[in-house]
Design a protein that fits this description.
By secondary structure, the protein is mostly helical. The chain is about 75% helix and about 0% strand. The mean pLDDT is about 85. The chain has seven helices and no strands.
């Protein structure tokens, strides 16, 4: 269990995200619910980090993993834009499968892209995601000390 704490935490966050999505599915496109789900997931993640006593090296690896997954999404933002505008994308099947897997892995944090799109800051997506991850990393690092 010692080596797999972050995997357990992330799986719990994914499960909770899907539960939150099913509870609020009629209001899924509301920025208020997206923000609430994002804040709930972040709060639960920070509580689990504190409870499971995650070390700094594991935390560094976890945020590197998140930033790699987010970078793949940022480079393929057309997929999200077509999903938000409800049009069809012209991506290959392999790339669509990769994006779907990444969306599942990033389920606790993917709402930030929805919020950025709704607010109209999609041009600054990379900068905002990077800032989000950096602030979340710094907060997490302070909490686990």
């Amino acid at each position: 269990m010692k080596k797999h704490k972050l995997i357990v935490i992330h799986l719990l966050l994914i499960i909770l995200s899907f539960i939150f999505i099913n509870i609020t599915k009629e209001s899924f496109f509301s920025i208020k619910y997206s923000t609430c789900i994002l804040i709930l997931n972040i709060s639960i993640m920070l509580l689990y980090f504190k409870k499971f006593k995650i070390n700094v090296v594991s935390l560094n690896k976890y945020f590197i993993f998140l930033s790699i997954l987010f970078s793949i999404l940022i480079f393929n933002i057309d997929y999200f834009l077509t999903a938000m505008m409800q049009t069809t994308s012209d991506m290959s099947l392999a790339m669509e499968i990769l994006i779907i897997i990444i969306n599942i892995l990033l389920a606790p944090f993917v709402f930030i892209i929805k919020i950025i799109y709704t607010l109209g800051f999609i041009k600054y997506l990379g900068l905002i995601i990077l800032s989000f991850l950096l602030v979340l990393y710094l907060i997490s690092k302070q909490i686990i000390k």
